[in-house]
């Protein structure tokens, strides 16, 4: 029976490797204590059409007079896809809210959870909290915490608007996340489903 163990280990390593083949994600072990995860995907804020995924739920009495819609709050459940085409592979959703918090220049404050449904990160999520000056071609938002394989995550995302029209804004996300530990499988009991890790 003892001899079986190395065989099982090899199988689990091979299984682990096959999960790394998703095109939108890459992992690099940086040192003995932390792992860097890189993700690249597209976010679609669908504001119009027959099935919007971002809806304004509240605003101030002056919002309609404001060039930046200052004081509006929008709830979103936006699709995240592998490529810039909204019909490309769905890999997760961005659920939360943003407020128009720039009075003179359009800027949003985001409180959004990015929840993944594809591959090894299925069931894991991370949170974006902070300012997003959307009129800048490239901007950065902070990642503060997460669940599953993104437990205790810290990091940032570089955002670039890919396309924008009155009904849909598509934004490219390049995400860099640091998590504790060098083997992600030990964080969720070896499952690839992002199930709740066992407490030791
Ligand atoms: C993601 O996990 C859910 C729940 O475990 C499962 O039903 C679904 O098939 C998984 N999706 C993929 C793409 O692996
Ligand atoms: C995201 O990463 C890709 C590939 O590394 C790069 O081509 C692209 O310019 C990056 N986008 C941003 C907004 O940094």
From TrEMBL:
Leader sequence residues: 1-20
Keywords: Apoplast, Secreted, Signal
Keyword Secreted attributed: yes
Location (main, coarse): secreted
Listed transmembrane segments: none
GO annotation terms (biological process): phenylpropanoid biosynthetic process
Gene3D superfamilies to which the protein is assigned, alphabetical: Allene oxide cyclase-like
Top-level division of the source organism's lineage: Eukaryota
InterPro entries to which the protein is assigned, alphabetical: Allene_oxi_cyc_Dirigent, Dirigent
KW Signal (keyword) present: yes
Location of the protein in the cell: Secreted, Extracellular space, Apoplast
GO CC terms of this entry: apoplast
Assembly: Homodimer.
Protein purpose: Dirigent proteins impart stereoselectivity on the phenoxy radical-coupling reaction, yielding optically active lignans from two molecules of coniferyl alcohol in the biosynthesis of lignans, flavonolignans, and alkaloids and thus plays a central role in plant secondary metabolism.
Family: Belongs to the plant dirigent protein family.
Name of the protein: Dirigent protein
Organism listed in the record: Erythroxylum novogranatense
């Amino acid at each position: 029976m003892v001899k079986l163990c190395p065989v099982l280990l090899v199988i689990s390593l091979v299984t682990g490797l096959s999960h790394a083949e998703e095109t939108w994600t890459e992992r690099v072990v940086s040192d003995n204590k932390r792992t860097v995860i890189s993700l690249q995907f597209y976010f679609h804020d669908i504001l119009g059409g027959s099935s919007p995924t971002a809806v304004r739920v509240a605003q101030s009495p002056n919002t309609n007079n404001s060039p930046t819609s200052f004081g509006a709050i929008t709830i979103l459940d936006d699709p995240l896809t592998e490529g810039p085409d909204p019909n490309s592979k769905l890999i997760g959703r961005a659920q939360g809210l943003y407020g128009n918090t720039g009075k003179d220049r359009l800027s949003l404050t985001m409180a959004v959870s990015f929840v993944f449904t594809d591959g090894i990160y299925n069931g894991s999520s991370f949170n974006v909290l902070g300012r997003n000056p959307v009129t800048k071609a490239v901007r950065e938002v902070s990642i503060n915490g997460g669940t599953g394989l993104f437990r205790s995550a810290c990091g940032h995302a570089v955002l670039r608007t890919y396309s924008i029209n009155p009904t849909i804004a598509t934004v490219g996300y390049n995400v860099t996340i640091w998590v504790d530990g060098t083997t992600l499988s030990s964080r969720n009991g070896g499952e690839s489903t992002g199930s709740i890790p066992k407490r030791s």
